[in-house]
Write a structure and sequence with these properties.
The protein is an alpha+beta fold and about 375 residues long. The chain has two domains: about 90 residues, no CATH class; about 280 residues, YVTN repeat-like/Quinoprotein amine dehydrogenase (Methylamine Dehydrogenase, Chain H, 7 Propeller), CATH 2.130.10. It is built from four helices and 28 strands. A four-stranded antiparallel β-sheet has the order 1-28-27-26, with no helix packed on it. The protein has a four-stranded antiparallel β-sheet with strand order 2-3-4-5, with no helix packed on it. It has a four-stranded antiparallel β-sheet with strand order 6-7-8-9, with no helix packed on it. A hairpin with a 3-residue loop joins strand 6 and strand 7. The radius of gyration is 26 Å and the shape is globular. The protein starts with a helix and ends with a strand. The N terminus is likely disordered.
Length: about 375
């Protein structure tokens, strides 16, 4: 689609130039509308910038002043309309180098933090321009990562612990033992929750000092974890289910079947969304009672998922892209190519960031 838009934009620009030249040589002006319509817009269906021009009275001296200065101004106006349309329908992106095998990401209000599972480090990038601010050593195989409002927490899958760093300067404030092969991490406003994929449980730690407040059994191979404002949801990758626990005491409120090999979880304010890695779909459940509202096809091997306040974004590791879907009905709104084997997805309030595991990069999507 983008290739077509690029070709169209170039063609329209050439035609605008040609029509301007003809007008300047005192030929009868022919508008870009008349030139392009038979070729690109059958049945008189034209984009808005042409409709604007074609709605004018082309015979009027007010519109076609044959002086060079006036006609050039009119052509400049049409070009600006064309340019605005192109920018409004074209996606731009930038990719920034991070560490080896980047996995997860979080946003601290100003910066993007990326866990590099192959480098045993975190990369901190300035969100507005992707500039590298720092790289900080943590434990072995860092994976899930979250911001608690002041500090960064990252689960070290190979060290069976979680590291707490000060967000302002990356200073390590502590490392705390959790279960085996910790993966996903979530913050409930007072505590940190860690999904221990090798222990089939979740650990709850007090955010102030890392004290373990409880360990709670869930399904097999828990990966993703999210807080919905009252409860914790954990995706059980080898149980094809998601478990809901009361955040205050870890009591299991329910376990609900989802798709095959669920990985990551997102909350849209009302519903829970789960990526099903094994069947190329996402499941939407009502947070209140776990009722499955819908299952929607996405790409190949979906992994990371995020909510931007309006839409859901899903990273497809086997398709090397992310898709944007409408929250209300799961309709696919757009597809964006990113790097190889995308994993984590986050939203920084303006842009979507996608971690590319096999490209050693993170992609920032500028979605006009």
């Amino acid at each position: 689609m983008k290739v077509f838009k690029d070709i169209f934009f170039s063609l329209a620009l050439v035609l605008l130039t040609v029509t301007t030249a003809r007008a300047e040589s005192n030929e009868i002006p022919i508008t870009p509308v008349e030139t392009l319509s038979p070729l690109l817009f059958p049945n008189n269906q034209r984009p808005f910038f042409f409709l604007t021009a074609s709605s004018e009275n082309v015979e009027s001296n007010d519109f076609y002043d044959h002086s060079k200065k006036s006609y050039q101004a009119q052509e400049d106006s049409r070009f600006n309309k064309l340019k605005r349309w192109y920018e409004a329908t074209t996606h731009s992106s930038s990719a920034f180098t991070v560490g080896f095998y980047p996995y997860g990401a979080t946003f601290d209000g100003d910066n993007i933090w990326v866990s590099n599972s192959g480098s045993n480090s975190l990369t901190k990038l300035r969100a507005n321009d992707g500039a590298l601010i720092g790289t900080y050593a943590v434990g072995s195989l860092p994976r899930g990562i979250v911001f608690d409002g002041t500090n960064i927490w990252v689960a070290n899958s190979g060290s069976n612990n979680i590291t707490k760093l000060r967000a302002s300067d990356g200073t390590i404030l502590g490392a705390y033992a959790v279960g085996f092969y910790p993966d996903g991490v979530a913050f409930d406003g007072a505590n940190i929750w860690v999904a221990n994929s090798g222990s089939n449980n979740v650990t709850k730690l007090r955010v102030s000092d890392g004290t373990v407040l409880g360990t709670y059994a869930v399904g097999y191979n828990p990966i993703g974890v999210i807080f919905d404002g009252a409860n914790i949801w954990v995706a059980n990758s080898n149980s094809n289910s998601i478990t809901k626990l009361r955040a205050s005491n870890g009591f299991v409120l329910g376990t609900y079947a989802v798709g095959w090999i669920p990985k990551w979880v997102a909350f849209d304010g009302v519903n829970i969304w789960v990526t099903n890695y094994g069947n190329g779909k996402v499941t939407k459940l009502r947070a209140g009672d776990g009722t499955v509202i819908g299952t929607y096809a996405v790409g190949i091997c979906p992994y990371g998922i995020a909510f931007d306040g309006v839409n859901i974004w899903v990273a497809n590791t086997g398709s090397n892209n992310v898709i944007k879907i409408r929250v209300s009905d799961g309709t696919v709104l757009d597809t964006y190519n990113v790097g190889l084997n995308p994993r984590g997805v986050i939203f920084d309030g303006t842009n979507v960031w996608v971690v590319n595991y096999d490209s050693v990069t993170i992609t920032k999507l500028l979605c006009f």
